[in-house]
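Marked as duplicate of an earlier ticket. Keeping the data here for the record.
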Amino acid sequence: MPPASHAPASIRTVLFDLDGTLLDTAPDLADALNTVLIEQGQAPLPFAQIRPVVSHGGIALIELGFRLERSDPAFDVLRQRLLDIYRANLSAQTRPFPGMPELLDSIEERGLNWGVVTNKPGWLTDPLLQDLQLFDRATCVVSGDTLDERKPHPAPMLYACEQAGSTPAQCVYVGDAQRDIEAGINAGMHTLVAMFGYIHAEDDPHSWNADATIDTPGELLDWLNRH
């Protein structure tokens, strides 16, 4: 189906990062980290301290919680424990960000398609999207282990384009981390920063060279309309 006339003719596909962009996964990941901390006899961390780190994955969460170097023998054991706890509670509290369900509906109503490109491994990505009844709606789901390369490498982005049947110039990628924007730019896509995501206080999204920033999911439609 061709895009509706009120959408920019060049855009056919909207691609999303997962954690901190499409889904608010921070509550479940924070609970998993705090469970591991308590198991190890340490105090849990405040949610506000964990939230900005979530987009950077399990390694970053263990670094935050335990202040360990990745070379420490205990690091991988703690990380695997974190992931095991998280896998058992993937969608306990995780939901799309407010306004995201309406955005996805609008994208589909316009005759566009949408997909996911994430560094999260497929054994977590796929069941999470299935739990939230989003997996079958996505035109493509590219996880961190789908290919040998991960963001900010352009390969996952280009693979997503192929799966979606679009050229990079016909895609816009929305993410909340600098590597997301770098990956999109490296692939020749339009890029938007999801300011509602897990932006760290030390981050400077306006220096990432994205096409624009959006404060809510609904602003993506405004961006489409303006172009």
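See parent ticket for discussion. The mean pLDDT is 95.
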